[in-house]
């Protein structure tokens, strides 16, 4: 199956219905770390287990591995959580000094230049999406007050009409100008060599380092846009949902494991974005067979040690309050997932590591093409691909001695 560009949207592809509402960031598992006692206990156990595994010199948790993790976090240290998950912090500020706006720029040329600049700043792939407000969080979480406050747009209330820049009001409501209709979405690749050692400290550390790169890249791109005289909101995991924006930006499809799958980078990616009013040409969603492939291939579900990934078909309801109702997808049990994180002392990454799309789009495409002859045969083949993807952690192999 070739990569097809679709004249549609993530909302249509995932059959958004009347039960869908904008997601309150308060319910995100990482924000729950600040107020949910159950999640706090699991996080405490996760840190304790990681420390014990390191003391025991468990493979993948050695003193050097632990030091490697510490080094990847040295750039932002204690600020990394805030700058990833909480909006308008030091490295993702909603406002900054602006240059003089130049009107009449050629949009085609500007779009190509912005994409190239984003890659030069550190992104591996870039797409442009129209900002569907349904993907913007209904509320943001304030670490100081430990409360949630609305995110609204300037055309949603008469008193906001004159707001022309991203604004935090005295009542803690954040207002985004209605002119900010575009999201520049970027993908960042995780190291496949580290991922093979999931669920140890190695891929966890690599992911942390990638996140620090994402903060730097989004901050730099926002600075470029402001110098051109336009608004820019840099964001990693704050402000809006990443995956539907990435789908709308033509960067991939969502897989059974709940991750974005890119035809060239597979699932070994992290997503960030910059929301802006800079005039740009938008990309279109793509289809390269992920739905058909994942329907037959259940490898991530079988390999998930927590049993958090479903083996059955898509549904429109979430497992619990951590996820929204009202859109079609394979529903992940996020609490089961986080319970295993607590046990292994990291963020696992096994479902990312074992995904067959990490072998490249051409490999999965050849399997899909075969399905035209015998879907049952291919389904059985896909369901038994235990050894065809990247290897999971081999305790006998040393990551640091491999060239």
From TrEMBL:
Gene3D superfamilies: 3.30.70.20. One of its GO terms (cellular component) is cell envelope. It is found in: Cell envelope. NCBIfam families: RDH (TIGR02486). It comes from Desulfitobacterium dehalogenans (strain ATCC 51507 / DSM 9161 / JW/IU-DC1). InterPro entries: 4Fe4S_Fe-S-bd, 4Fe4S_Fe_S_CS, QueG, RDH. It comes from the Bacteria. Coiled coil: none annotated. GO terms for biological process: tRNA queuosine(34) biosynthetic process. This is Reductive dehalogenase. Keywords: 4Fe-4S, Iron, Iron-sulfur, Membrane, Metal-binding, Signal. GO terms for molecular function: 4 iron, 4 sulfur cluster binding; epoxyqueuosine reductase activity; metal ion binding. Residues 284-314 form the 4Fe-4S ferredoxin-type domain. PANTHER family: EPOXYQUEUOSINE REDUCTASE. Its main location: other.
């Amino acid at each position: 199956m070739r990569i097809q560009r679709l004249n549609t949207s993530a909302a249509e592809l995932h059959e958004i219905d009347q039960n869908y509402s904008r997601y309150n960031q308060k319910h995100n598992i990482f924000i729950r770390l600040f107020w949910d006692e159950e999640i706090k206990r699991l996080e405490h156990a996760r840190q304790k287990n990681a420390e014990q595994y390191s003391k025991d010199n468990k493979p993948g948790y050695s003193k050097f591995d632990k030091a490697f993790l510490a080094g990847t976090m040295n750039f932002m240290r204690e600020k990394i959580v805030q700058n990833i998950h909480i909006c308008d912090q030091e490295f993702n500020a909603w406002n900054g000094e602006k240059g003089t706006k130049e009107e009449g720029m050629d949009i085609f040329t500007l779009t190509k230049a912005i994409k190239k600049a984003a890659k030069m700043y550190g992104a591996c792939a870039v797409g442009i999406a129209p900002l569907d407000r349904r993907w913007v969080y209904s509320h943001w979480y304030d670490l100081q007050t430990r409360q949630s406050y609305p995110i609204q747009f300037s055309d949603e209330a008469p008193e906001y009409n004159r707001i022309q820049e991203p604004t935090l009001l005295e009542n803690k409501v954040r207002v985004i100008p209605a002119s900010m209709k575009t999201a520049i979405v970027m993908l960042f690749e995780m190291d496949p060599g580290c991922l093979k050692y999931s669920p140890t400290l190695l891929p966890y550390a690599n992911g942390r380092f990638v996140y620090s790169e994402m903060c730097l890249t989004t901050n730099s791109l926002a600075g470029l846009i402001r110098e051109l005289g336009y608004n820019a909101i840099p964001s990693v995991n704050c402000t809006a949902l990443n995956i539907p924006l990435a789908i709308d930006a033509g960067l991939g499809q969502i897989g059974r494991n709940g991750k974005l799958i890119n035809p060239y980078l597979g699932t070994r990616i992290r997503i960030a974005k910059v929301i802006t009013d800079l005039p740009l040409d938008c990309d279109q969603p793509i289809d390269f067979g992920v739905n058909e492939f994942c329907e037959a291939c259940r490898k991530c579900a079988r390999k998930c040690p927590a049993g958090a990934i479903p083996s059955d078909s898509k549904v429109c309801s979430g497992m619990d309050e951590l996820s929204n109702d009202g859109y079609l997808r394979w529903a992940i049990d996020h609490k089961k997932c986080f319970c295993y994180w607590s046990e292994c002392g990291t963020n696992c990454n096994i479902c990312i590591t074992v995904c067959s799309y990490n072998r490249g789009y051409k490999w999965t495409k050849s399997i899909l093409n075969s399905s035209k002859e015998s879907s049952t045969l291919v389904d059985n083949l896909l369901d038994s691909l235990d050894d065809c993807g990247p290897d999971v952690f081999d305790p006998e192999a040393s990551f640091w001695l491999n060239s």
